[in-house]
Amino acid sequence: MAEQVKTKMVNGIDMDVLQSTVNAIQEEPELGKCMFRVSNKWLGANHNCTTVTSFYGAKQEIDHKQSFEIHADEPAILAGQDQGANPVEHLLNALAACVTTSMVAHAAVRRIHIEELESELEGDIDLQGFLGLAKDVPKGYTDIRVKFKVKADTDNIERLKDLAQYSPVFNTLINGVNVDIQIEPK
Amino acid sequence: MAEQVKTKMVNGIDMDVLQSTVNAIQEEPELGKCMFRVSNKWLGANHNCTTVTSFYGAKQEIDHKQSFEIHADEPAILAGQDQGANPVEHLLNALAACVTTSMVAHAAVRRIHIEELESELEGDIDLQGFLGLAKDVPKGYTDIRVKFKVKADTDNIERLKDLAQYSPVFNTLINGVNVDIQIEPK
Question: Within an 8 Å CB–CB cutoff, is residue A153 touching chain B?
Fold first, then answer.
């Protein structure tokens, strides 16, 4: 069957690169340990900017090809100037990006070809929690819904849903994570 | 004491706007219910783009002043083209932005003046989990560390640490959240 012939590129991903990373970590698990980092600077009011420059992985410091700057602000109704998506929208972006990437990469490894992939996400927050107006109202998201539309062999659609479960951001969100906050004078 | 005179702007935030939002939600809790949304489109390989346009809050649909586009990709070692921060870096951005904004806004309400605020975040992920190479290794972040440096009255630094706890993204991450994923053919 022609579609099962192994090609170098699947879903736009170079399978040689992906497979060599997988093989290397399988042989030497220490290579899989990563530390991702960002730095953030407050720019006044609700506006702040994150810079992403480098990370640790494969037992070495690795620079991105370029630094990335990501702005966050709040809309006028939340007393901001609307100079960027707000932090909880950025969280939905992280989830959308991660589930998409995870699905595409895991599909590629299984030779499932994806032609198009889009998603719509929405999440519920009651601001009474954040504002400290009601102690019994959670401060964070209570529910997030992700709806994908995919153009692919229909036989594979349920498999793709399973592959979404590999997403690191999805797993961080459903399981929770330890977050330690320290603050010191500048 | 001069510093306790109530001024309209604290930490760059218009206190009249912030206080009127707080008062309105306190009087009519339904106004606090928000639904934030993003849409995402896969652009091939590990590259995808999120668009943020509008949200629901204060019992109405509200458009941002402009749409925001946020790109995600992976570095070369993870088989990407490095055209944006990767999804787990975007998650750290969401956390950095949210704790910063929460701290600044809650400080403003308490008339705690902040002159400068910066943070460094790092998070640990072992790729063996994401790659499905070891079932006992978590797929998401296991630990995230946030280090703030703040220029403010030193008496207030411990209070600022407490105010960080109001952050919606922080609370979502430490408590976990329900995430429902649906997928349908396009």
Answer: no
